[in-house]
Automatic annotation (TrEMBL):
Pfam families: DUF4407. The chain crosses the membrane at residues 28-51, 57-74, 264-288. Signal peptide: none annotated. This is DUF4407 domain-containing protein.
Length: 366
């Protein structure tokens, strides 16, 4: 039962292979098994590749099944269409396009499986890239908000500087009128004279201005700080919004690029392994000696070719014979006097009718 299934996979004619020896059946069963297991690996590779894209099991299995059947059909077609020739060079030239196709299939099949085999190493590369992207993203967003944040910070600093300068002025005036009262500076007279009153009036005026300025600037500072908090919240929200995009940087293309950043030698040998598996049926067919099945198939094809050639020759001969017979018949008819006289009479009548018709037309135009 298993042998029959693998013979079906090999693409061999079941009627021809049924009459062959067990050794011949075993050879083709081996070729069919290679075709089948290559399709199985194609199914796994295709399913995993789509799973990395959509992260959904059922579509991945469906696509993998279709991809596996496609590869199975291609391999079966490639193997079944190779014919054994008398010279190896002719066989190789015949199989060369199929070998190229097998190489392409092997590369396509091996890539998703390489991604799965080196999954941990690829995850490490992707983690490093994600961290770099995250830092770069934060830097870009911070740069975008930097001008507004710096402007607010500068405005707050200026407002605080105004308050500090006014406070310093008030303190200086305070020290001045105290020193005047104590007689240590100014008029050097102890007591609250006219100069003292003038200086304390300046101090009181400056203090009122300070209170007004402080109230005004503190209100503006509160607004600026609130705006700064809003900008910072927007910055944090922007970072949070872009974070899932960075975390989702885990698709098929990202993994292929990450695989390319790993040492090439292990990946190359895995690709060679799949290349050997994919081309194994073709190589086996090329290297195998011409067997019983090949002789029977050649006999069947040459017999059909001979029959078709004979039919074509007979059709051509029939056409040539028929043409020759018709030539002779018409030659005999051409020599018949009675037919000649009849044809001459009819032609004369036709010419008379044409002449009469022409004369009538000329009369009508006059």
């Amino acid at each position: 039962m298993l042998q029959q299934f693998f013979l079906l996979c090999s693409g061999a004619d079941k009627n021809l292979i049924a009459g062959c020896s067990e050794g011949e059946k075993t050879k083709f069963a081996g070729i069919g098994a290679t075709v089948f297991f290559t399709a199985v690996m194609a199914f796994i590779a295709g399913a995993y590749a789509l799973y990395t894209v959509f992260d959904n099991t059922y579509p991945a299995i469906g696509f993998g099944l279709v991809w596996g059947l496609l590869i199975f059909n291609l391999d079966r077609f490639i193997v079944s269409t190779i014919r054994k020739r008398e010279r190896f060079g002719s066989e190789f030239l015949q199989a060369l396009p199929r070998i190229v196709l097998a190489v392409i299939i092997a590369i396509v099949i091996s890539k998703p499986l390489e991604i799965k085999i080196f999954e941990k190493e690829i995850d490490t590369v992707l983690l490093k890239e994600k961290n770099e992207m995250e830092l770069s993203n934060k830097k870009e967003i911070a740069t975008y908000f930097k001008s507004d944040l710096d402007k607010n910070k500068g405005d707050v600093s200026d407002l605080k500087s105004e308050i500090a300068a006014k406070e310093k002025e008030v303190n200086t005036l305070y020290e001045t009128y105290i020193a005047e009262a104590e007689g240590t500076k100014g008029t050097l007279k102890i007591g609250k004279g006219p100069v003292f009153k003038e200086k304390i009036a300046k101090h009181d005026l400056a203090r009122k201005e300070l209170d007004t300025l402080r109230k005004k600037n503190l209100s503006l500072i509160a607004e600026k700080e609130a705006k700064t908090k809003t900008l910072q919240a927007d910055l944090d929200r922007k970072v949070s919004q872009t974070q899932p995009i960075i975390e989702g940087f885990d698709g098929l293309m990202a993994r292929i690029n990450a695989l390319d950043k790993l040492p090439w030698l292990p990946s190359f040998f895995i690709m060679l392994l799949f290349l050997a598996i994919e081309t194994a049926p073709i190589i086996a067919k090329l290297l195998a000696p011409k067997g019983e099945y090949d002789f029977k198939l050649e006999d069947l094809e040459t017999a059909l070719q001979a029959t078709l050639s004979q039919d074509k020759y007979q059709r051509d001969l029939l056409i040539r014979t028929s043409a020759s017979m018709h030539d002779k018949v018409y030659a005999d008819i051409a020599e018949d006097k009675s037919l000649y006289n009849l044809q001459r009479k009819k032609a004369t009548e036709l010419l008379e009718l044409q002449a009469n018709s022409f004369v009538e037309k000329q009369r009508r135009t006059l």
